[in-house]
Design goal:
8-stranded antiparallel beta barrel, flat, 2 domains
């Protein structure tokens, strides 16, 4: 089902120095191809549990209102749209993908753009939708959403671009019949309610004022998960982080008494993991209980996507942050054990 959106919005200057780069409104247009399985016998379990969500792919163009320093964003993303409490009119949607920024920081040609130092960045779009069926074939809708694009601190600078947008659009629609015939069977389906996971992750991070290189960073995560129902899960676990940039940071801070312990941080986290079949989204908040340098505060956060390749093996990608400041992007592989 194709959908088209036109939107207008503004960049949120989450740092004061960003104000001079904001010269106008953000104008955007999007095109999405969404799938809704209209054959009840072929519905996936998670589609039934979430009351027939829409999923698919989209492309998005944003004119940032400053063609000289900021340029434009071209993005491609995966989308899922879910009804709020089974409503036919109100929805929330989650979108994630990759973006190309036409004007990034360049020390020689664009040194006024101190927001993003890379052309290739991640792209996230979260929002709410109100829609109204005009006929069996046509839907009109309005979106309010938050957009974020940055490089996950792979390159400096990396303040990121945050946008609030309000849009209108239309989508062609195909109705579904006999949905209630299979809903109860799926919601009674057996699934493991308790399990543990071990994942190994790695990435690279940049430091402020060092634009010629980045540093290896890795983590090991041990997680225990409780899944009370088909759609939701909650987790708690331990994190071990290794950060090779610590020595460089201590040299800049003129701290000379470093040793091997300074490269490691240990933390404990709690999280929520909505389940979408073989895909899970983990939203976690943690606190360091061992961090000798302690230059980024006691609290950390992680938003991750886990894709299960089998009942035991999964791949993951995550953004680890300290509140709204990204530290690095984690790429990892994990193993599920102790499942019952």
């Amino acid at each position: 089902m194709p959908a088209i959106t036109l939107a207008n919005g503004f960049i949120m200057p989450h740092h004061q120095y960003m104000n001079y780069l904001i010269n106008g409104h953000v104008v955007s247009v999007g095109l999405e191809i969404l799938n809704k399985n209209i054959v009840p016998e072929k519905l996936k379990d998670w589609q039934v549990a979430y009351k027939m969500p829409l999923s698919g792919w989209g492309v998005y163009y944003l004119n940032l209102g400053n063609p000289k320093q900021l340029g434009d964003i071209w993005a491609a993303y995966k989308k899922i749209q879910i009804a709020i409490h089974g409503s036919n009119h109100f929805f929330y949607h989650i979108n994630g993908g990759i973006a190309f920024l036409t004007k990034s920081f360049d020390i020689d040609n664009n040194n006024y753009n101190i927001i993003i130092g890379s052309h290739i960045n991640v792209f996230f779009k979260f929002g709410l939708t109100f829609q109204q069926n005009i006929s069996n074939k046509l839907i009109l809708f309005s979106d309010l959403y938050f957009i974020h694009s940055s490089n996950g601190n792979y390159f400096e600078p990396n303040a990121g671009i945050n946008i609030i947008n309000l849009g209108v659009g239309m989508r062609f629609h195909q109705p579904i019949n006999n949905y209630n015939l299979i809903e109860n069977n799926v919601l009674r389906k057996e699934f493991p309610k308790y399990f543990s996971e071990l994942s190994i992750n790695a990435g690279r991070k940049a430091l402020p004022n060092i634009m010629s290189r980045n540093f290896f960073i890795g983590s090991v995560l041990v997680n225990s998960v409780f899944r009370p129902n088909f759609k939701n899960a909650f987790d708690a676990g331990l994190d071990i982080f290794y950060d090779s940039s610590v020595k460089t940071k201590m040299i800049f801070a003129e701290i000379s008494d470093y040793n091997a312990d300074n490269f490691y941080r240990l933390g404990f986290h709690l999280g929520y993991e909505p389940q979408f079949g073989k895909t899970a989204i983990a939203i976690q908040m943690g606190v360091y209980f061992f961090d000798k340098l302690n230059d980024e505060g006691y609290f950390y956060h992680r938003v991750a996507i886990k894709q299960y390749c089998s009942k035991k093996i999964f791949l993951g990608v995550a953004v680890k942050t300290h509140f709204f400041k990204a530290e690095f992007i984690e790429w990892g592989i994990g193993y599920r054990f102790f499942s019952k």
